């Protein structure tokens, strides 16, 4: 039966490729329908089991960090295609399995969307889980933040071996009581806490410093004089050059390091491994287009948008293009744009353009923060081309984009430019 | 003369960008060179006696529990303010709490302050999606609704406007929101004032008139807001 699943999945994938389609969901969906139980059986054969990474922000980059770190010890199966529903993990599994049905891996590291993580763990109890944060995001799907926290609680409860929690997000830290697995925490030093506000703190709550001891602590953020981040791993201090920019990725690195400790990696292996991680899809990826530098930044929710705006603090751009789509995967509700403060944007970029189905909404939002918008172009490809053409050689264009537009823009930039 | 905007529970009752309503009203006064101050009011804080406009947003169910007692204590004060013509815009959870009571799904009764003659009961199914409301006074309001409470209007209020079946106050009678004097409740997030500039100015004029001030507001360029509203009503729910 499972050989059938692998063949079915692989053939569906091949058919999609022939049609020139991405299709990371369909093969998994087909296998799920025709051979239920395939995933659970395949995962049960992995000697080190499954690591689930979930939370509101940072899933993709953190998963990439964990997979890279564990790759120094194990053969790692991961869903690095960006499909974080259960079907995405099935697609990754059949794609990497041999035609004989053999799965030549020791451990799986899967990013899962908060709601799908619950379905996943019901079928496949993970050996390890890394729970990142709970922020307001896609409330049209999840209802409320407390509901999201309860979803993560179910993941913690189903985990058999070790749960790694962000002690600086009180909703996440509280999940220690939901699990019988071993628990360890990661965090940032108290001096850095204000740079990592939780959802409450973003909306006016006081910054609190957690008391749980952390196995990995972020001790220093990069600056002009010291571009490396500082981590304390157990009792060893290490300096790491991260290729994924922004304070949030420094925090994600601490989480990935804490998870790697549960697999027995050493402090030095972790420090060296983190330096190998390149930015994940649309998370600070850079392209050269006719000598212009274009950076893609995925934005999905207020906390994430705020974090990516912080990556501009040190890097002034000539043009920012803000692309807001409202398809299902983006979230239909664009109210969240009002929870982001854009008033500092004119100091970091010379010109701002808006795009996407909600280009006009975004322009209205910026106007109320006194950010002049020079063009409202709903077509993302046109908007980005116009932005690139408007800057001189050597110029910087930063593109903030929601999920669905990011796929199109990524393809366009690969066609008209080259990844740097 | 300074217009005082009171923002109720900015921390607990702001889950869907409703703070944007405060930003919109403040900026639209500033752009007209009118003096304005914003006063956040949290649990235990006094409401300024010279409040002109009171704004409240939607919250999580748990937050509504936390502030419920504080809100209930303010009942007599809020009713007196409403009688005095203070402008209030209450969204979602704040709208529900301005009513008589909220009956949760499991029959638990949470008392409101009775400023609006409405009653709400919780349902398992949420009404979620893009929505618009056609109003007699301010034209079409455009926003986004996301609520599990269904609200029934009593004779002491009139609906803010009409919407389509399956939406609005209760999904059944095509009404959306409730109005009494200068008090307006609605389920529209968005935030509603961002894409409904006529409605925003209507609220400002009500507040200015009440203070006996010049209620003539210079026109602003709202072409982008109108464009955004036109797009929003064409999008899937």
Written account of the structure:
The complex is a heterodimer of chains A (420) and B (237). Chain A is 39% helix and 20% strand. Chain A is α/β, with parallel strands linked by helices. In chain A, the strands form two sheets. Chain A has a nine-stranded mixed sheet with strand order 2-3-1-4-5-6-7-8-9, with helices on both faces. A seven-stranded mixed sheet of chain A has the order 14-13-12-15-11-10-16, sandwiched between helices. In chain A, helix 6 (114-123) packs parallel to helix 8 (145-158). Chain A is globular. Chain B is of the alpha/beta class and 237 residues long. Chain B has a single domain (2-232), classed as Class I glutamine amidotransferase (GATase) domain (Rossmann fold), CATH 3.40.50. Chain B contains six helices and twelve strands. Chain B has helices at 19-30, 61-73, 75-83, 93-98, 197-210, 223-232; strands at residues 2-8, 35-41, 53-56, 87-91, 101-103, 109-111, 118-135, 139-153, 161-162, 175-176, 178-180, 183-186. In chain B, the strands form three sheets. Chain B has a six-stranded mixed sheet with strand order 2-1-3-4-12-11. Chain B has a four-stranded mixed sheet with strand order 6-5-7-8. In chain B, strands 9-10 form a two-stranded antiparallel ribbon. The longest helix of chain B has 14 residues, at 197-210. Chain B starts with a strand and ends in a 5-residue tail after the last helix.
Give a quick summary of the entry.
The complex is a heterodimer of chains A (420) and B (237). Chain A has 420 residues and is α/β, with parallel strands linked by helices.
